[in-house]
Amino acid sequence: MRQEMMEDEYSREMADSKAQEANRPRALTYDEKKAAEAAFRGEPFNPAWSAAAAMVYGGIVSAMEKRHTTEPVESDVTVECAIG
Q: Which among 5, 72, 83, 84 is placed 20 to 30 Å from 41, CA to CA?
């Protein structure tokens, strides 16, 4: 019973440690930087880049798409000003 409790505590500490590590900022690798640059420029993803670079690229593209869909369009602003 005591051994199980110690193992559970160790597992919990390891999970906490991994969670803290995942939240810690780190420098991007070369291909992650290239993927970020490509995403901001609207260039296609290079399949030779790593899976981590694909995550960076996908995250930026997704965020930019959301940003573009939530920004008001000139015609929307005109209508709101005329009504308000």
A: 72
pTM for this entry: 0.56
Closest by CA position to 38, among listed 15, 60, 67 = 60
The torsion region of residue 42 among left (phi > 0), alpha (psi -120 to 50) and beta comes to: left
pLDDT digit string, tens, across residues 54-63: 999 999 999 9
Write b or e for each residue in 7-22: b if 16 or more Cβ atoms lie within 10 A of its Cβ, otherwise e.
eeeeeeeeeeeeeeee
Tokens representing 22 are 């995942």
Which residue type occupies 59?
G
Count of residues in the chain: 84
Q: What is the pLDDT of residues 24-44, one digit of tens each?
A: 888 999 999 999 999 999 999
Residue with tokens 């005591």: 2
- 28: number of Cβ within 10 Å: 13
Place of tokens 């929307």: 76
